[in-house]
Each structure stands twice: as structure tokens, then as C-alpha cells.
Amino acid sequence: VDIVFASQIETPESWLPRLRRALPADRFFVWPECGDRERVEVALVGEPPRDALATFPNLKLIQSLWMGVDGLLADPTLPRAVPLARMVDAGMVAAMAETVLVHVLDWHRHLYRYREHQADGVWKRHRQYMACDRTVGLLGLGALGSEAARRLLLMGFKVCGWSRRPKRIEGVECFSDLGEVLKRSQALVCLLPLTAQTRCVLNASAFAAMPEHSCVINIARGAHVVEADLLAALDSGHLAHAYLDVFETEPLPEAHPFWHHPKVTLTPHCAALTEPRTAVPVLVENIERVRRGEPALNLVDPSAGY
Amino acid sequence: VDIVFASQIETPESWLPRLRRALPADRFFVWPECGDRERVEVALVGEPPRDALATFPNLKLIQSLWMGVDGLLADPTLPRAVPLARMVDAGMVAAMAETVLVHVLDWHRHLYRYREHQADGVWKRHRQYMACDRTVGLLGLGALGSEAARRLLLMGFKVCGWSRRPKRIEGVECFSDLGEVLKRSQALVCLLPLTAQTRCVLNASAFAAMPEHSCVINIARGAHVVEADLLAALDSGHLAHAYLDVFETEPLPEAHPFWHHPKVTLTPHCAALTEPRTAVPVLVENIERVRRGEPALNLVDPSAGY
Q1: What pTM value is reported for the model?
Q2: Counting C-beta atoms within 10 Å of the first and last residue's C-beta, which end of chain B has fewer, N or C?
Q3: What does the alpha-carbon distance between residue A275 and residue A89 come to, in Å, rounded to a whole number?
Q4: Does the beta-carbon distance from A106 to B109 stay under 8 Å?
Q5: Which residue of A has its CA nearest to B270?
């Protein structure tokens, strides 16, 4: 099989050596290099150059290197007839669960407040809670949400969650009614795919439905949050803190109020990166499936948007 | 049994209602109130007023409300002939494990660096590691260390540890040679009791033995660290960051360089507080043992210092 690697973000050196070792009989090209365009059957992409994919007439699989495919689906030059698979790899799922844990624990142990005290030179303790006093709400209960839930439960937190499709996860209160999750969530974690249904899900009425002094953790997509509503909920004192990894515009513009807001902990879209060590075996499996003429794993349902 | 509660720090309202409900036939006094001094058999203490304990001639147990008893043992007015028990309660053990996890994850996910970037308005990603790329070293493998180890292992970290007495913990590389732990530890966590043997254990030669760009987490006692040596190791760039909860002098003096050091995350001795909900059953068990004339749980060995 001829395979083209086309990404403006991912570096080929992190991927190609592993892929070539795993699949020595296949031919890998790095866009714009691509050999005979008619022979290319698989494109490995993460923000591919516009129009690039449409130049391969016999493409059988577009394989995203990333879990989120909202960017790809928004590209009008994406060949819609070609099956699209998203990446679900163990390293990325684990990284996301680590990020959920560190932010939930930072809030639970009051570390965001202690950092403020440190800056002010103030020695002051806050009341300690037990993990079982705290309910964490997960928006999204797929591969990411269920692993985050498992680890939160191991730490003793109460966990509830919301998903479009009904889910059953041991120990997790699962709801299809968002309001049920919002009213319970002292820490609310957004892990949703970005779709027409989930855009702006974290808005003024969602924040108002949450308990006083809760925190919001958005590590999905910037467009899940109505930024002005979040700022208002933080400034009014209703929300205690926000941990934000993703933004409507990235990199976050210099003048954006999130940068220096005392109630915002901001990271540069690094909550979880695809990990080539665990992702390459997933790519290999899907390339083998193309070779055998079988459907790929983790195919995107364009009508659902993920 | 007559029991006196004597603490300059712990508030009786957090403890007495639960104790009275659990032991309705016993009599509880809050120092300086104490009824008939000759009848008091148990003292519940956390920094008791000096000389207080020596005024009870028939004391059968001094029960610390805290895990660390170095302060008590350093008090020359402590009646040495009376058995002394330290507190080991599930809530406090869990709190300490949460604190270990949050600091290890903060370092592992580079959050201390991203906070600096946020303050500087810089959008910059750092390389992601997997938990299995990281070795966490635990100094102390008792109740605290073994629970921290269990949770770190569940998160996928490699864990090694050092203890005075040989220990075997599934999945943990246990050493009695401190150097073996130091040279492996990319994150080093101090959970030791403070004794003559452990005082100043975190000194210049210990830091030099650690890998470059490691972090140190001290949530035991301030006197475990030679503060000037730690500052030197941070300032030279050898250590990447220190998470410090405890200090030689507490509250930390206003002019101390830790307050505003860019490589220090500082908390006000709050890594884990005794949790009355889980500690009261331990107190009740030990009071019942006094009543039955049996030795208490968690007795301190004065020669070991804990």
C-alpha cells in the first residue's frame, strides 16, 4: 500500500521511522512528496494542507492522527466519499485522564487558592474535604470519559456523566439529561467531541445550573464554551475557577482576558497529545484492514460529527 | 474512662460531638477543664499546652491526633513513662496520597511551567511523556508511602522507595540504600517521620545524586530539607521545581526566599490534615483498648522516634 503523511503540525520524524519498521513492505511518503498519486490508498493526517487529500483519486482511508476530527470535517476540500477514521490510542487516553486528575485534584486540594496566597505572601489554610465529598461531572463518556471516570473512582470521587448515547459504566451515575449532571457537578469536565449539538454547551444557563463555587475544566474544544458567559460566571463569584486548555482562537490572542484572569488556569492545548508509541499500532491495524479490504477501526459517523 | 482533649491547634468542636456519640458512657473534658485529674486515663493531643500532660498522675495513653509525633517527643515536659500512640487514619492517608498525586502530575504534565508561561503571556507546548517514562521515588514506605505507591502505580508511574526497615510492596522497587532511590527519582517525595536519622536527609549531596531536572516534593517535615542546599540546587538549574508544604519555621517567615521563588510551589502545611470522620473510630478503638487494659494501636517506639 502507498501511504501519504500529510500534517502541518505533526512532525514526520516522530511517526515515519516507527511506521516503516512496523510495515517494511509498504511505501510511505511525506506530503508534498507522494510518488504515483493513483497508488496512494491511505492518508495519515493532522491538519493536512487544504486541497491535498482531493488529489488522490484512489484513497481508501483518511486516518486522523488526532482524536478530534471537527477541524477535518469543517474543511470543504475533504473528500466526503472516503472513509474517515479518528485516532483512539491508549497513550492519548491515558494522558487525558492524567490531565483530568491533575485539574480535579488541584481544585479539590485548593491548590489554585494556595498559589494565589503564595503570590500574596499569605499563610492560610482552607478546609480539607474528602474525595467522597466531591462529585465530578464528565461531559462525554466515550474512550476518554470512561477512563477518566475509572481513575476518579479509584481516587474516591463521586462521578456522574452525560452522553448522547446511553452508557453504563460501573460506579458512574450516567444521564442523558444534561441538567441532572450540571446540578451535581462541583467539578465539571468537558471531554465532548465538537459537533453542532455540543457547540456552546458550556453557556450561562449551564453555569447557573451548577452548584456555587464549582470549577469548570475544558479540555475538549474551545467552541464548547461561550467565553463571555464563562468570564461572567467567574467574575460574579458563582464559579470558583476554570482550567482551560482549548480556546475559540488558538494560540489565544495576546489581549484575551483569560491570559491574566486570576480565576483561570490556562494551558496551550496540551491536555493530551497523540502518543506515537501507542498510536502507531492503531495505524498499522487500520492499514492492514485497508490491505484486506475490511472496514477501519474508529470510523467517523459524519452525521454525528465524530 | 475520663479523657482530656488538649490541643492548641485542633478545634474541640470537630472532635467532641463525634467522640461523645461513639462513647456515651465516657467523660470528655477540654483542657484546661479536666474534672478529677486523678481519674483522667487518656489524653488526646495535638500540640498540647506545655506541662499539661504531666498534671495527670494516672494517664494510661497519650493519643496524638496527628501522624507526626516529632513535636511531642521534643517536648521535655512529655511524661515519658506513658505509652504514646500516633494517629494513622484512612482519611489522612488518602489526603496525603492525593497530595502526592497532584504534585507528581503537576510536574509530569509540566503545569508548573505552563503557569509561568501564562504569567508571561507565552503559548508554548512542552514534550509529553507517558507515566511509564517517569520514576517516582518515595522516601518512607509506611502507611503513607505504601498508599501513595499504590495510586502512583495505578496511574502507570514507575515507583521506587526507601525505608529504614526492609519492605516488600508489589510493583515497587524497595531499597534500604538511599543512593539507589535518589539516582532513579525524577520526582522525589519525602514522607518520612522526622527522627535523628532523617533530619537533613534532603541535602546538597542528595540533590546532586538525583537526575538532572528532577523535582522534589516535601510533605513531611521542614527539617528534612536543608533549605539553603535546596535553593542552591534550584538556582543552579539542577532541580526543576520543588513542591514544599513544610518548613523549618512555620508559618514561613515573610522574608523567606521560598515565598517568591519561581521554582517553588508553596502550601501552608496542608498536604494532609487528620480527618475526624476516619480518625474518631481509631480513637474509639484505642480508648476501648485502655478500658480493657490492652496495648494501643500505632504505639510510638521512642528509640526509633516514630
Answers
A1: 0.97
A2: N
A3: 7
A4: no
A5: A125
